[in-house]
Hints:
- The complex is a heterodimer of chains A (291) and B (234).
- By secondary structure, chain A is mostly helical.
- In chain A, 73% of the residues lie in helices and 3% in strands.
- Chain A contains eleven helices and four strands.
- Chain B has 234 residues and is an alpha/beta fold.
- In chain B, the strands form two sheets. Chain B has a six-stranded mixed sheet with strand order 6-7-8-3-9-10, sandwiched between helices. A four-stranded antiparallel sheet of chain B has the order 2-1-4-5, covered by helices on one side.
- The complex binds adenosine-5'-triphosphate and magnesium ion.
- Adenosine-5'-triphosphate is lined by residues 11, 14, 16, 34, 36-42, 83, 192 of chain B.
Amino acid sequence: xxxxxQIINGLHVGSIYALIALGYxxxxxxxxxxxxxxxxxxxxxxxxxxxxxxxxHVPFWIAIIVAVVFCALLGMLIERFAYKPLRNASxxxxxxxxxxxxxxxxxxxxxxxxxxxxxxxxxxxxxxxQFGGVQVGQVTIYxxxxxxxxxxxxxxxxxxTKMGKxxxxxxxxxxxxxxxxxxxxxxxxxxxxxxxGLAAVGGALxxxxxxxxxxxxxxMLGLKAFIAAVLGGIGKIQGAMLGAFxxxxxxxxxxxxxxxxxxxxxxxxxxxxxxxxxxxxxLGQNIREKV
Amino acid sequence: xxxVNDLHVHxxxxxxxxxxxxNVNEGEIVxxxxxxxxxxxxxxxxxxxLLKPSKGEVLYSNINLNLIKPHKIIQYGLAHVPEGRRVFSxxxxxxxxxxxxxxxxxxxxxxxxxxxxxxxxxxxxxxENQLAGTLSGGEQQMLAMGRALMxxxxxxxxxxxxxxxxxxLVKEIFTIVKECNxxxxxxxxxxxxxxxxxxxxDKCYVLETGKVVLHGDAKDLLDNDIVKKAYLxx
Lengths: 291, 234
Ligand SMILES: Nc1ncnc2c1ncn2[C@@H]1O[C@H](COP(=O)(O)OP(=O)(O)OP(=O)(O)O)[C@@H](O)[C@H]1O
Ligand SMILES: [Mg+2]
């Protein structure tokens, strides 16, 4: 029973990592940039949810929508002013810029909200569900459900819609996509908006489980989601989901059966092991350099 | 229909195109021939907006293309089949063709064009749901051309469609190029296979290291001694 519980906890954190990992992987897929500021967009999202709840007194789901819109705009803003001017620069330049944007967001949060952790209200309460002998909290159920629904919607969007096809075309060959009449700039901006919007949901759900918000919550959360994206094969949407669930479950099993201090070390160890065997990640293909 | 005046292209300090001028009239097939590195691809890229010329103008139906955003150029009926096909290998054949019609708003028109392309390239029909990356070179060339035709262009830019293909396939592709021309499309064709290109073209420009060294009617150039020696194998 305890084992089942740990797996369910793993699915819980895994689905949060997945929502965040999608942003890393989609952005990487289209502009080949590791957006180190992504974790801090999540942190901003958590503050927006918190403020909407405590200052505007709106219901939780409205707070999430506010955060999604805010973060989507923030993501587009970052892309437009920090990364777009560097699109033809060598790869290291935007990477350093991303670290700069990350520090900037943390410092803005520190100035505006102070470094003191703020408590996050209890928004999802109610009796836990009983499955056989296992008790599963409502937060867990909601988190998994919302994440799975969003992932299915994203998959449908990318596979079926015109914009989704344009995104895949741009990530494969931006020049050829231009010849089709696809506006690269719009497509990239939309990718950032979707990635950041999903991250906002991830941040909100994270805060319901770990109800403390400070300017640094994005760092570790972002790092783990990034590891999930790399593990699954960066650039691959399904890879990010798979990697995130593997990381989440590994983490919970280690916490439950080995030691909670070791959980992060085990996550890194798995990453290293997988990359030794499959450098491009579980679902990744060997990268073909563009001409 | 297309007039290029004193075109210059630089790649950093490399001066790749050094003042090229040429002219394509409506309904014509015009070919640019030249050896590797002569500058054929650079010229097509400057026309379709994939690169900014450092000097010179590109006029298409009296529109100055230098002033048009690259992704808007196809809306004026100018489609470019790039060198090396550049199909979207992770997308299916059908999806590639759908992207060719990205600018076509009318879904009936899209269906019509889709069926037309499938008629022109029956081989693609059998492979509709296959990933483009798994097609053979010849099939990818057909897909690249089909994708360009999905926007019902008035003019086609073709960059070495015969590259890497067997003689039979080259013939097939050239037959289709001629057919497109008969259907009313004006064609600008880059080729290293000068013999094939001259056999279907009306006019020809010969490029050497970024300059036009010779031009004239394709028929005349077939008999030209310099062309024979340099491009037609003696
Ligand atoms: N991206 C680039 N950066 C630097 N130089 C380039 C670039 N693209 C082309 N060149 C140079 O410009 C010149 C013309 O190249 P281009 O590709 O236009 O020739 P081409 O006639 O199409 O050759 P091929 O028949 O091999 O396709 C060459 O000397 C080439 O080295
Ligand atoms: Mg070329």
